[in-house]
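Dear colleagues,

As part of the handover before I leave the project, I'm documenting each prediction I ran so the next person doesn't have to rerun anything. This entry is a single chain, and its sequence is reproduced below.
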Amino acid sequence: NALQYYAHWITPELEQRRYSARFFVAHAPANQTGTHDSHETTDSLWITPQDAVEQYNNGVFQCGPPTLRVLEQMARFSSIEQAVTAAKNTPCKANAPQFAKDGETMCLVLSGDPLHPYEPGTKRRRFALEEARWRTIFDDDTPE
């Protein structure tokens, strides 16, 4: 009951395998030791969201756009209390990004982006695939 629902991402329709991924925040129990399942997840690391974003930006590890965006959002909080409070007070709606091209650049666009086929808007809300890595391009900090 300590988990707070934070984000929901759905794989683009173009993908052969589709996922509905949900993200939660909570205080970790004291003396908690995190491990991975050695099946779907092949590595684990306990670091702050700020360090995770920095390491991603420096090419230390790779993650998909949903995880990157949640880490970027979490990195804005100075404490777990702030993150839990934000999750409690912000309605969570599903993000259903779609693939689109901006010139020669492949993008993953969210609703509100002018390139989104179903819910176009006026602000860039996308990830651009550049040199095999996703780069976040959001014209605002509107929660997804």
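The radius of gyration is 16 Å. The mean pLDDT is 90.

All the best with the project,
I.
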